[in-house]
Design a protein that fits this description.
It contains nine helices and two strands. Strands 1-2 form a two-stranded antiparallel ribbon. With about 180 residues, the protein is mainly alpha-helical.
Amino acid sequence: MISSILLPEVRLLLILLSTPFIVFIVHVILIRVRPGISRQLTAVQAILASAAPLALTTWSFALKDFSPPEMLPAILYSLILYGCLANTYFHFFNMSETARRIRILYEVYRAGSLSPTVFESLYKTTDIINIRLIRLVDMKQLRQEEGVYMIGRKTLLRAAQFVVIWRRLLGLETENL
């Protein structure tokens, strides 16, 4: 029914724009089915788990109706847009999970106003570092052996190296990363 009403381009766009909602639903399910797994890793798994069903839906309701010359560009567009929307979802979630600025704004909102000494009590440096180390170990980006940390998987390390190069090319400071 919908297939005959809307153009394939419109159907494609509507399906792809549903990506963050689909990933969110899968993310909610994964967090509840597998508690205790790194929340960032669970977000990545939700993105990956959503890809195949969204690809099948995209093909069934939109891509198959494109003419042969339009097919490849439509598939490439779909892949790029899915990647961008999934990346945005991950970073939006990650920001809600790790950004101190979000917590500071929320704490001030809840209290109405806060003094600098209250912030110091909320943010103990050792707690902040320990939480991040635990997250990196949970994501297997770091491993701990005999009381020291070493690089594990190199996914985030490569991303960090890319960020340093990018900042250098832009002429921005890289020492405080």
